[in-house]
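Anyone opening a protein record will find just a pair of labelled lines. A complete record is shown below as an example.
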Amino acid sequence: MATFAHRINRTVADWARDVTGLEGYDLPDPIAMAVALRPDLITEQERAYVDVAVGEETRGQMIIDRRVSAPAPNVTLVRRVSEPGFKKLLFDTCAAPAPDSAATPSGATR
């Protein structure tokens, strides 16, 4: 599974190295899911007013307004998570046996 994960992230790893100088690559989607499942993994967060740009040049960019005059915070930004805690959750989840595909949820029909 690790080989597969590394192979499918090769392009982002190359981009991270060449563009940001990051060794390896981050995993934003798995981290977001880990935080949703285990909020105790958060080690740094902040409340802020955030808007998303819709202009042609900046479409999709998140604008964080930290001015004293900013509107009331509308988002909690997760700035850092426990790396050891995240990796343990990720590795434990990957190592867990797959659910029995023959089992059907209660009330479900085949």
Q: What stands out?
A: Strands lie at 42-52, 62-65, 75-81.
